């Protein structure tokens, strides 16, 4: 896409001769850097930030730690940034939060400079890009109560395999990813002497698949036990929901989006979002799911009655709902809801609007929200790591890296997390969802919890929270404050009083 930006080379001979006479002295030349992957290098710097009115001094570590093969040779360098509060005398009680994003194939940039880190990107109050690009201090960061490690899996961020001969398959799959990262976390904990610290994992999107699997893998292969896991905009976690269940569970998200864009009838629009949604959720479970399951045996009158309710909640026409036999695809909804206004709505955050080449069709041309986010995050993370944290390299920072094909076989991560919680009475779970997230929607996140804990024996250690934004709910100023505060509360709650035994 950038080939038209390459300058013609016909005049290079003249330009080179002229420039040679005015070449800068060696002292003025840029520092020579390399695109050779780093396996083991760290840069340290000191900073401070004001969080909730209190000055918090901290050290930032930016670098790579190797992944080793069975012969103890480095086969990859995993890039990380680690923020450690520097005025803490006793780290044995200091919580350690280990943070991942998802994709698979994306780095930890999103939560690092968008959510929990001490520096966050400049966006407007709703999360839209602004220029000039840059960062500002995060007054809501959880660094006041916990040290934070952000990890970029192989082929994301600055993380790379050691050479072209390394077998890609050992990194790029559900369980492959979990296994090598568990080993890597062990190395990190050893290097930074954090075995005594209460430990938490937080993952966003596919990162929730990753940390759900890591909770059990760390216990079973590294003998490392956690105090908490946080799932931000969780995936399906390998929990089966095909057929009528999959079709029905979309409706509450559709209803939230329709409410936001004022496409519902006046009586629903007059209600607050969180007053309206319980009615839709009850309809979804008690009426829509059985109706879809009945298929051709559903009476015509009942089908029309259910379709009318679906239309009422989703802002679509009854005719369209019937044409789809009550099973509305996500893509069609994003294209159809604002078709009369010549807009599409975003997949990851349906507050965002897009414009297509033509209003006709069943699928938006692009994801309006992701384009917006890349617009603001990409300059900020490159400026931050290279200039503020002084990590010098010529390597490209992969916002999305080459990790496919990805082996999705054997995804039992929801069950892995349940088993880890059953085995570890200390382990707590917090789930955070945006009501306007259509990729990892909030009602499917609730369904995860119901199916992970069908007996209800873990419910005292599980909590769910909803926010009035999308996949990255923290980009909205109001939600940035409340979601970080909820994390802060969760961390404190998940750490038992000194001497409390881990037993049932």
TrEMBL record:
Name the record gives this protein: Carboxypeptidase
Keyword Protease: yes
PANTHER family per the UniProt record, alphabetical: RETINOID-INDUCIBLE SERINE CARBOXYPEPTIDASE (PTHR11802:SF3), SERINE PROTEASE FAMILY S10 SERINE CARBOXYPEPTIDASE (PTHR11802)
Keywords: Carboxypeptidase, Glycoprotein, Hydrolase, Protease, Signal
Species classification: Bacteria, Pseudomonadati, Bacteroidota, Chitinophagia, Chitinophagales
Region described as Disordered: spans on this chain: 25-46
Pfam hit, one: Peptidase_S10
Cross-referenced InterPro entries: AB_hydrolase_fold (IPR029058), Peptidase_S10 (IPR001563)
Annotated organism of origin: Chitinophaga horti
């Amino acid at each position: 896409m950038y080939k038209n930006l390459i300058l013609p080379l016909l005049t290079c001979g003249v330009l080179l001769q002229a420039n040679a006479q005015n070449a800068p002295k060696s002292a003025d030349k840029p520092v020579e850097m390399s695109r050779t992957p780093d396996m083991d290098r760290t840069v340290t710097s000191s900073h401070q930030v004001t969080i909730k009115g209190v000055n918090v001094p901290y050290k930032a570590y930016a670098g790579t730690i190797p992944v080793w093969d069975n012969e103890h040779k480095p086969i990859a360098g995993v890039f990380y940034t680690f923020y450690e509060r520097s005025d803490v005398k006793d780290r044995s009680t200091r919580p350690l939060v280990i943070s991942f994003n998802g994709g698979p194939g994306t780095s930890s940039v999103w939560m690092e400079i968008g959510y929990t880190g001490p520096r966050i990107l400049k966006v407007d109050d709703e999360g839209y890009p602004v220029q000039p690009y840059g960062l500002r201090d995060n007054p809501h960061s959880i660094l006041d109560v916990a040290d934070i490690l952000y990890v970029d899996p192989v082929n994301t961020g600055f993380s790379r395999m050691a050479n072209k001969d390394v077998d890609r398959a050992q990194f790029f799959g559900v369980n492959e990813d979990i296994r090598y990262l568990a080993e890597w976390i062990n190395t990190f904990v050893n290097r930074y002497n954090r075995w005594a610290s209460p430990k938490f994992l937080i993952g966003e999107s596919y990162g929730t698949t990753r940390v759900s699997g890591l909770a059990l893998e760390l216990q079973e292969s590294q003998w490392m036990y956690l105090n908490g896991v946080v799932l931000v905009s969780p995936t399906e976690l390998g929990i089966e929901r095909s057929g009528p269940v999959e079709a029905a569970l979309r409706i509450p998200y559709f209803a939230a989006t329709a409410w936001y864009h004022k496409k519902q009838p006046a009586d629903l629009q007059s209600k607050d979002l969180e007053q309206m949604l319980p009615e839709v959720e009850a309809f979804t479970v008690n009426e829509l799911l059985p109706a879809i399951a009945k298929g051709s045996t559903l009476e015509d009158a009942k089908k029309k009655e259910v379709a009318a309710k679906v239309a009422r909640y989703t802002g679509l026409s009854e005719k369209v709902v019937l044409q789809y036999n009550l099973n509305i695809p996500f893509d069609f909804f994003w294209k159809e809801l604002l078709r009369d206004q010549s807009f599409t709505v975003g997949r990851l955050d349906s507050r965002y609007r897009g414009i297509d080449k033509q209003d006709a069709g069943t699928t938006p041309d692009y994801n309006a929200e992701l384009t917006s986010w890349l617009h603001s995050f990409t300059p900020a993370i490159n400026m931050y790591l290279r200039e503020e944290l002084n990590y010098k390299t010529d390597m490209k920072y992969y916002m999305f890296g080459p990790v496919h094909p990805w082996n999705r076989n054997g995804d039992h991560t929801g069950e892995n997390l349940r088993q880890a919680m059953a085995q570890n009475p200390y382990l707590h779970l917090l789930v955070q969802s945006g009501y306007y997230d259509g990729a990892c929607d909030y009602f499917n996140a609730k369904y995860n919890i119901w199916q992970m804990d069908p007996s209800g024996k873990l419910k005292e250690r599980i909590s769910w929270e909803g926010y009035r934004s999308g996949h990255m709910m923290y980009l909205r100023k109001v939600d940035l404050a409340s979601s970080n505060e909820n994390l802060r509360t969760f961390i404190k709650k998940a750490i038992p009083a000194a001497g409390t035994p881990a037993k049932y």
